Amino acid sequence: MAFSSSAPRPLVSATAARWALLLLTALNFLNYIDRSILFAVQPQIAAEFHCSDRQIGLLTSAFFFCYMCFAPVAGFLADRVARKYIMAVGAVLWSVATLMTAVTHSYNVLLIRHTIVGIGEATFVTITPAFVSDLFPEHRRGRIMAVFYVAIPVGTAIGYLLGGALGQRYGWRAPFYVCAAPGVLLGLLLLFVPEPIRGARDTIQQTYERSSLAGLRKNGAFWTCSLGMAMMTFAVGGLQVWMPTFLYRLRGIPLDQANFRFGLLTVVAGTASALAGGWVGDHLLRKNVGAYYLVSAVGMAVSIPLVVIAITVHGTLMYAAILLAEFFILLNTAPLNAALVNSVSANIRSTAVAVNLFTIHLLGDAFSPTIIGYISDKTNLQVGFLPTVVAVILSAVILFIGMRFAPRVPAIESASAHE
């Protein structure tokens, strides 16, 4: 029996939703592993190509420039065609581009390699938050985003560990090959994931500001979330790129040990904070509509003195400060991404996420590594880190303001009324 193309489709089953989340999270792990390997081998690249700190920072800036410029294209397409095909193409593209490292024998070719990877990763990262949000209801999105975005600290940490270990033993090119084959395989598996119905899990009221691109410019929930993210991204992007080099150069720690120690601190702090932030955000959302913003803002505020301590002291206290600073900064990982997808309606969600990505990278880590590298060339890395402290302060202020714009979630109010 043939079915009409206009026949309503059933919701994706709970089992299928969990499997889709698992697959997307695995790809996100590879995404961040590939991205952070560079940070672990920067001194080796600088030695081979005779690069300044500004040029090394430019590699990451070029990646994010292409990443943020292509994100709107991916978002525009994703709001109009089946998203799983676009995500699959992006995953395969960045994985194949990783193999270009084998033929990279000049700084300029390495720069080109990073731009191609940026395009592939933008295609995947722009679409996945909207895709995942259509699999689960609004009041569970903090915990769901915690699972998906735990890939950020864990993947980043694995990148440091792989880069430090393999780069020291086999040369800086070797670690880049780790993600290539798994990325292609998982990218192709995306073709078999069911496409969820857009907005089927949403209960928040549609308004002009939430459901139209023209109204998006007046959407306070979206913009405070995006600007708070941008300042956080400036700080995190700069610290992640330069911290192993900082430990190696200013604290006299061997490069492989610097990567191992910072990677270990990142995986512990990042995993705990991502899961804690998602759970606490969902729990507080029952009593405070601005809970996602509140958890994020408090985390940023608490991290301010910890960042200062981390870059000014030595020994055990420095490691403790790094661990706690990462925990509180990354506490926003799940709640702030849940706030982002809840701030707009499903019909423009992928495009809105693309605008968010463009904003946070334009004002954040597209330039912070280069700025820090430039200041380092003129002074030292310790002074170069000072702009990250200012960015953390600004992020906390913006997110506290964002609490007043958070939308009401009828599904939670209805559940609370029956308790």
Could you explain the architecture of this structure?
This protein has 419 residues and is an all-alpha fold. The chain has 19 helices and no strands. It has helices spanning 14-49, 53-78, 83-98, 107-133, 141-149, 151-170, 180-189, 208-211, 213-216, 220-249, 255-285, 291-310, 315-329, 333-342, 349-362, 368-378, 381-384, 386-402, 410-417. Helix 1 runs antiparallel to helix 7 (180-189).
Biggest pleated sheet: none
Distance between the termini: 45 Å
Class per helix and strand makeup: mainly alpha
Strand residues, percent: under 5%
Instruction: Calculate the mean pLDDT score and round it.
Output: 88
Question: What is the helix tally?
Answer: 19
- Classify the helix fraction into a percent range: over 70%
Low-confidence stretches: 1-7, 415-419
Question: What order do the SSEs take from the amino end to the carboxyl end, as H and E?
Answer: HHHHHHHHHHHHHHHHHHH
What is the strand tally? Answer: 0
| Radius of gyration, taken over Cα atoms and rounded to an integer in Å | 21 Å
Q: Tell me, what's the shape?
A: globular
Give a brief rundown of this model:
The radius of gyration is 21 Å and the shape is globular. It is 74% helix and 0% strand.
Which helices and strands, and how do they pair?
Elements: H1 14-49, H2 53-78, H3 83-98, H4 107-133, H5 141-149, H6 151-170, H7 180-189, H8 208-211, H9 213-216, H10 220-249, H11 255-285, H12 291-310, H13 315-329, H14 333-342, H15 349-362, H16 368-378, H17 381-384, H18 386-402, H19 410-417
